[in-house]
């Protein structure tokens, strides 16, 4: 059986359908969307299919019936009425340079001015030019007009961090979108997509009638690929991946789920896979961090460190009210809204009657490992190569049950961290310990920090042994104090029944470590 041809990097619906690429049918949701309301806004992370959705809407409203053969839309739609479509791709406009911004914005409008035989003008404001285009399209076609705006927030996000440019662009975007409500009688459908959520007063001005479907259960799966879609439509490709990686079908499914699944966009959202990583993985028959590698969130990592939010919270999850993460980007007091809206956090649980009903967490291993790697480099002020070299030595020693060498490597690594008196407090070093053990997890069997009997600083489990670490960071703490705490709290108790692959008991170690504040690295340690 021939394997599917996945549309990697292709976001044009007509090209996908005409050239035989695989398409996950979302047209039942497109039909519902277009027959329920008029003004919509949808936020989703980058590379999640927003542009493909916009392209699908464009082809539908242009009446291109032949493209929908065999899809749900063919059964649902009976009229196929054609509408003039104005599509603005704001990702082509992003520039903080005023002249370049104006040039790119003008290019978005000029093609429609030409199509409707309007005099070319650059003197009018953006909103006035858009109004003129909509009025001309309506008058000349005698039909209502469809307006589709892709990545509405791209120009504003480009200017984040530059206060003067941000305010200038924000005001111009307000002016551009202003006619969309005033011309409501001429409009059949208005749909805006983006990554972030800006307040309506900030960007949309009078356009305060948008139906925001970002967290609607009905449209939770309109972008991305659900577990059901994966398992019912891509079985041959999963098997080919399994064969290539020398694993079983079920093992391949489990690995795909750990790495790329885990997104939820509403209270009752189905499991959503990251579509970019999933089709790359199936198409290239490998497990790599495709989505994370396509855009490094350096600004977000710096923000997490600046706000001194514990990486453990993001890793294990934390409870919040909706207003904490579903908030306007420009008024956010923490990086949580940006992290959530950008796809680095997602909804992992919902308790209806709680004050903070939503649980947010890293969605999957691709995001978790990528973010923790970046956070480690940020906290230790080192590049990826230096950190990777240390981890290689550390993990090799741990696998060989050579704790002395592992701790010696950690001592040297921490001693080489550039000194910053302002930030290198107890919280800072405790975070470094957590990150070192957490990012070593893929190379060991398990690395956890909580046990049923209490909370150890780190519990590392390899194929043959279990190691419980306790670090004393305060000035008076000793290695003996750390060992005593392991005993008093019973941190080793849950692991006394663990066994190796051949059924023999695993070796158990407790390691107490004192921190040398003067040298800013590990001091004395004891192993029992």
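Q: What amino acid sequence fits the structure above?
A:
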């Amino acid at each position: 059986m021939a394997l599917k041809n996945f549309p990697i990097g292709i976001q044009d619906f007509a090209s996908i359908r005409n050239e035989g690429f695989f398409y996950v049918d979302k047209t039942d949701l497109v039909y519902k969307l277009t027959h329920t309301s008029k003004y919509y806004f949808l936020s989703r992370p980058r590379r999640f299919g927003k542009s493909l959705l916009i392209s699908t809407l464009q082809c539908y409203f242009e009446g291109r019936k032949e493209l929908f053969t065999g899809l749900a839309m063919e059964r649902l739609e009976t009229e196929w009425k054609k509408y003039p479509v104005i599509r603005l791709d704001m990702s082509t406009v992003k520039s903080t340079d005023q002249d370049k911004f104006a040039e790119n914005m003008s290019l978005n409008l000029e093609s429609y001015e030409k199509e409707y035989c309007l005099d070319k003008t650059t003197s009018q404001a953006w909103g006035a030019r858009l109004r003129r285009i909509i009025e001309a399209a309506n008058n000349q076609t005698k039909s209502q007009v469809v307006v589709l705006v892709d990545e509405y927030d791209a120009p504003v996000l480009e200017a984040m961090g530059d206060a003067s440019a941000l305010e200038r662009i924000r005001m111009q975007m307000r002016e551009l979108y202003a006619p969309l409500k005033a011309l409501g009688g001429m409009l059949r459908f208005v749909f805006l997509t983006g990554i972030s959520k800006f307040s309506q007063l900030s960007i949309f001005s009078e356009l305060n009638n948008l139906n925001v479907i970002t967290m609607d259960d009905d449209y939770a799966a309109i972008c991305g690929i659900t577990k059901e879609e994966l398992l019912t439509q891509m079985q041959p490709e999963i098997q080919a991946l399994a064969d290539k990686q020398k694993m079983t079908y079920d093992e391949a499914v489990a690995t795909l789920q750990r790495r790329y699944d885990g997104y939820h966009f509403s209270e009752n959202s189905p499991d959503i896979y990251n579509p970019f990583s999933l089709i790359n993985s199936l198409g290239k028959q490998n497990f790599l961090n495709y989505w994370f590698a396509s855009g490094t969130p350096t600004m977000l990592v710096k923000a997490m460190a600046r706000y001194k939010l514990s990486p453990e919270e993001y890793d294990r999850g934390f409870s919040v009210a909706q207003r904490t993460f579903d908030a306007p980007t420009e008024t956010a007091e923490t990086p949580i809204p940006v992290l959530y809206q950008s796809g680095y956090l997602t909804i992992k649980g919902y308790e209806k009657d709680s004050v903070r009903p939503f649980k947010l967490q890293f969605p999957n291993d691709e995001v978790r490992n990528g973010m923790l790697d970046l956070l480690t480099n940020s906290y230790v002020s080192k590049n990826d190569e230096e950190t990777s070299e240390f981890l290689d030595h550390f993990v090799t020693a741990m696998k060989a049950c050579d704790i002395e060498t592992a701790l010696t490597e950690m001592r040297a690594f921490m001693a080489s961290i550039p000194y910053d008196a302002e930030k290198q407090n107890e919280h800072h070093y405790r975070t470094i310990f957590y990150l070192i053990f957490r990012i070593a997890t893929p190379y060991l069997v398990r690395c956890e920090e909580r046990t049923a009997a209490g909370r150890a600083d780190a519990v590392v489990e390899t194929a043959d042994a279990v190691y419980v670490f306790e670090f004393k960071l305060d000035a008076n703490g000793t290695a003996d104090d750390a060992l005593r705490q392991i005993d008093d709290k019973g941190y080793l108790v849950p692991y006394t029944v663990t066994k190796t692959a051949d059924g023999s008991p695993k070796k158990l170690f407790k390691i107490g470590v004192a921190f040398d504040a003067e040298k800013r690295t590990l001091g004395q340690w004891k192993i029992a």
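Q: And what stands out in the fold?
A: The chain has 23 helices and 15 strands.
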